[in-house]
Design brief:
Length: about 425
């Protein structure tokens, strides 16, 4: 409480009233001094209020990070090999919380993806475009885990669509636990303007020294913790066509009555030059394709990995509404992106680094009896042209190692699906 010392003000009043000879200039001076004093008191009190607000804000920020650290310590989940600590739902989307809005409807789709810190910023564009549930597993290790927690909390604070729709999971190698995690409870968030600096790591996913990037383990974590019936597995630097989520939900609600459950709905994938405007629909995409601004995905890097989508046929299909354009039997080494039910064969977690991590999964779907159906009015665009010279230096070595594993994998499928007449070739 403040002690207001009235005697001085009383003395001023008495002097003003009893001294009839007090000149007008002196009176003005006295009043001016009083105004300055009152302004000083006002600024002091305002400063205290602002400082208190800042402390409250910092406490809220710390609480977000503190909750994630708590989940790390409380999680006892490991991957199938016992090599990675997995923290599912380290930060849940607002709509996913029990106290939030109702859970997503039956025919809803969740984008599932994975990344390290250096590509996590793409989640903002993805969430803004998708406007629906997204699950992303973030890979980190050592003190980089604290940076990931700061990034997640700041993204949720600065981008309401991320807070509302994105659920984050975390995974790290058991032998690379962060040493400074206990001291991170009081870590303050960076400002929204400073957030891009957090993502300035120049190290690509495949170049973590002695750490192998476990794509498929991260994907399995995201799929396992999905709450919707359908999933859409894509890379974090890709964007789906506008309206795809709602269009597919309407389509599958009708088509589900006659389509087999084992269907993978292929979304033709493309890559666009940087800073090219995103096409509003298929008609706009075709114009940009003709102009050389957009081309089929992996056109230079591995055309045989995508050409079985049959882009020439897709180009001629009417794009006025979403429907199945045609079916394509799987052929090695086709690796399309697709939407399917979440209860599918898991990704083989032995495939790490570059090569065969997605091909192996689509191959198994084929052997398991899935139909690959290309959708007519949907597409996926990677931001930037993929070019062979921009890959990491150990790509060829990793590709050769995973090729040997893929051969073994195909032989194992014969035993896993003994009654299947389909093979991976």
């Amino acid at each position: 409480m403040y002690n207001l010392r009235m005697p001085r003000l009383t003395y001023l009043k008495i002097c003003c009233c009893n001294n009839s000879r007090l000149s007008l200039p002196k009176l003005i001076l006295v009043l001016l001094v009083a105004v300055i004093v009152l302004q000083g008191v006002h600024m002091f009190l305002l400063s205290r209020i602002q400082n208190h607000a800042k402390r409250e804000s910092k406490t809220a920020d710390n609480s977000e990070i503190g909750e994630m650290i708590k989940r790390i310590y409380e999680s006892h989940e490991l991957d199938a090999t016992g090599s990675y600590h997995v923290i599912a739902n380290v930060a849940m989307c607002e709509k996913c919380l029990p106290t939030g809005a109702p859970m997503y409807e039956k025919y809803e789709i969740t984008i599932v993806t994975q990344t390290s810190l250096n590509n996590l910023h793409h989640i903002v564009n993805m969430a803004s475009q998708w406007q629906g549930p997204i699950g992303v597993t973030v890979f980190a290790f050592d003190d980089g885990i604290v940076n990931v927690l700061i990034a997640i909390a700041t993204l949720r604070k600065c981008h309401p669509v991320v807070l509302k729709t994105v659920t984050f999971h975390l995974a790290y190698p058991l032998h690379r636990f962060p040493q400074n995690l206990n001291n991170a409870y009081d870590t303050a968030l960076v400002s929204c303007e400073e957030l891009p600096k957090v993502f300035e790591s120049k190290v690509p996913n495949y170049s973590f020294d002695d750490i192998q990037y476990p794509h498929n383990m991260l994907r399995n974590v995201a799929v396992k913790n999905t709450k919707t019936e359908f999933i859409f597995m894509i890379d974090i630097d890709m964007l789906p066509s506008l309206g795809l989520r709602k269009d597919f939900s309407k389509f599958i609600e009708v088509a589900d009555r006659f389509l087999p459950n084992l269907t993978a709905f292929v979304i033709p994938s493309f890559e666009a030059k940087l800073n090219v405007s995103f096409p509003a629909d298929k008609k706009a995409l075709l114009k940009q394709w003709d102009a050389g601004e957009i081309r089929p995905f992996y056109y230079e890097v591995c055309w045989k990995c995508q050409r079985h989508t049959d882009y020439d046929t897709w180009k001629e299909i009417d794009g006025s509404q979403l429907k199945i354009a045609y079916n394509v039997p799987w052929k090695d080494p086709w690796e399309p992106f697709f939407i399917t039910r979440r209860f599918m064969p898991t990704f083989d977690e032995r495939f790490k680094q570059y090569g065969f991590n997605r091909i192996s999964h689509v191959c198994e779907l084929h052997v398991a009896g899935y139909t690959l159906s290309v959708l007519s009015n949907a597409f996926l665009i990677h931001q930037g042209f993929k070019q062979p010279e921009k890959f990491h230096s150990t790509k060829t070595k990793e590709l050769n190692m995973n090729r040997m594993l893929f051969r073994k994998f195909k032989e194992e499928l014969k035993m896993k699906y003994p009654y299947s007449q389909k093979r991976c070739y």
